[in-house]
C-alpha cells in the first residue's frame, strides 16, 4: 500500500487498513458518497481501534450505516447558513500546522435548534474531508461563559456532536486548544484525563488566558 496517507502507519495499521479495504470497498456506500472511503479514512478507523480488525470493522460498519441514513455528504451550505452566522461555532483560516481552524465559543448565544447546530458540525467535517484535510485544529474559547442565560440546547448539541465525531469521524482532531477557561475546567479535565487515550491527550493543550501561547499555533489573521 503506497498511498501517502499511510506512509507513517505501523505494520499492524497497514494490515488492518488492507483488511478494511477488502471488507468495506467504496461500493459499500452510495455512488455519490464512495469517495469517503479513501486510504486516509481506513487508516483513521484502524488507528481509532489500535489496529484491532474486529473493533475497527465494527466501527466502520456503524459509520457506513449512519452515512447511508443521514447522508452527510448531501448537507448543503444553504442548510447551515443560519448556523454559520452564529457566534458559537465559527470556521476560520488555517493553523500554523496547515489544519483548518474551528473556533467554538462556549456560552455564546445561538438562536438555532439542535438539529441545525449538529448539521453545521457535520458540514464542517465533510467540507474538510472534501478539501483533503484529515485533521482540524479546534479552539475552545470560554470567554463568553456565564455572560448569557444557560441554553439547554447547547448541552444536547455537544453530547450529540461528540458522539458523531468520535464514532463517525475518528482521528480528525489535530489539536485542541483550550483558551480562556475558568479555573475549574482544568481540574475537571484532570479527573477524566486518565480515561482518555494517550494519543488524544497529547493533542489537548491548555493555554490559559495567554494570547501569546495561542499565537504559537495560529496566526492572528487566521482567526475569526
UniProtKB/TrEMBL annotation:
GO terms for molecular function: phosphatidylinositol transfer activity. Coiled coil: none annotated. Residues 79-224 form the CRAL-TRIO domain. CDD domains: SEC14. It holds the Pfam family CRAL_TRIO. It comes from the Eukaryota. This is Sec4-like phosphatidylinositol transfer-like protein. The lineage of its organism: Eukaryota, Discoba, Euglenozoa, Kinetoplastea, Metakinetoplastina.
